[in-house]
Amino acid sequence: MTSMNRPKINPLSRRPRQQRLVMAVRGGAGVGKSFFAASLADAGLGRLCIIDTERKTRLLHGVGEMFDGLEVEHPGEVPEFVDWLLNSPEAAEQNYGCYALDSWASYFSAKHSEMIAAVRERTGDPLAQPNAEELAADQMVLQGVLRSLCQSGKSVVIVDQIPAKGKETKEDNEMGRVLPSTASGLEYFVDIMCEVSLQERNGEVVRVFQIVKSNSPAFELGFEMTGNVTFKDFLDHLVQRSGSKLPVNTPAPLTVAETLPTSEPLKIVPPQISVEDLLAKAVQYGFKQSDIVTAAKIYHQQPNIYHLTSDQLADLDRRMSAKIEKMQATNHAVPEEISASGRTSRNGLRRAS
Questions:
Q1: Does residue 51 lie in a domain region?
Q2: Number of domains in the chain
Q3: Distance between CA atoms of 50 and 324, rounded to whole angstroms?
Q4: End-to-end CA distance of the chain
Q5: Is the Cβ–Cβ distance between 319 and 280 less than 8 Å?
Q6: Cα separation of 97 and 173, whole Å?
Q7: Can you tell me whether residue 234 is helix, strand or coil?
């Protein structure tokens, strides 16, 4: 199918029909980021699929039953997994309603290390570092994974790991930062970014979720949730504070057509000839009105040429044009007469088949 005939998307069909939350969860090792990502399965959004770059999803309760965990063996497989998850018929059959990537840091760090190794091999300098242009190009490629997941139209949790305190500041000073937040630009693709930590409060250690980046008025910077927090807690807060009327569990029915009506391709209509035009053409080339009347009787059983249809007039014009071409080719100056038997006589049209 050519692009001219491909149905066009109706923009009105792309109005939001379901409330969703795209969230990044950052924190050190062991603070419960993966457990939080798995809580998507209990949010009533449909079956959860976790793309597991650390191969630890197997340790979570409910894996294989309440949700799926897909283990990535090599970092280069991540884009293939994401493409399969979003576009394949097999994934569609699983009825996934939400996604998680655990973790972004593992994928980004591994691919970034490959780029640094390539720079050092190319330059021959074992301590060489990529320049700003190389970093920017690397990030644009790697962020395709984030863009696809976060713009999938589903609720998503991206798990990220915070490096040792002070490491990011040191990198800023020594290398320069192309994009903030672990040099990955993660915050540009999510609605909110939350840092998770274990803190002592009122004499006990609790898990603290603090908003550090926000694109939603429902979550102010510094907003905190503490304790055994789940994804549903954040989604409920979003719905309550935003006053959203969009459904959470299933999309609202589509009330308009998904594609615009396709217009019929333009047809080239041959110009119509009138009786007067046909008679004038006949006289111009030496025929008579009686020749046209005779032809109308023979070919269309119509003795009154003024009752001929447009198609019948066009047919007589075609036959006369064919005769004229033949006369010109043989240098006959005298036209011949139409006869029902196909025989010709002086001053008439020959029967054209």
A1: yes
A2: 2
A3: 78
A4: 38
A5: no
A6: 42
A7: helix
Domain match, 195 and 284 both: no
- By the 10 Å C-beta count (0-12 exposed, 13-18 middle, 19+ buried), 104 is classed as buried
Other Cβ atoms less than 10 A from the Cβ of 154: the count is: 22
What's the domain range around 326? Answer: 270-353
Domain end among 225, 242, 259: 242
| Euclidean distance between CA atoms 235 and 254, whole angstroms | 23
Name the H helices within 129-211: 132-150, 167-175
Helix (H), strand (E), coil (C) string for 260-321 = CCCCCCCCCCCCCCCHHHHHHHHHHCCCCHHHHHHHHHHHHCCCCHHHCCHHHHHHHHHHHH
Peptide bond into 103 cis (omega under 30): yes
Residue 335: pLDDT above 60?
A: no
The residue count of the chain comes to 353
Listed in sequence order, the residues at least 6 apart from 117 whose beta carbon sits closer than 8 Å to its beta carbon are: none
Q: Is residue 2 part of a domain?
A: no
Q: Both 325 and 275 in a single domain?
A: yes
CA torsion sign for 89, 90, 91, 93 is positive
Report residue 38's pLDDT band, with 50, 70 and 90 as the boundaries. very high
Does the residue 250 lie in any domain? no
Q: Return d(Cα 260, Cα 176) in angstroms, integer.
A: 48
**Where residue 184 falls among pLDDT bands split at 50, 70, 90?**
low
Q: Cα–Cα distance between 272 and 51 in angstroms, integer? A: 66
pLDDT digits (tens, 9 = 90+) for 43-59: 999 999 999 999 999 99
CB 32 within 8 A of CB 54: no
Same domain membership, residue 217 and residue 74: yes
Same domain, 277 and 225: no
Q: State the number of CA atoms in the 13 A half-sphere of 38 facing the CB.
A: 21
Is 264 inside any structural domain?
no
Q: What is the CATH number of the domain that holds 151?
A: 3.40.50.300
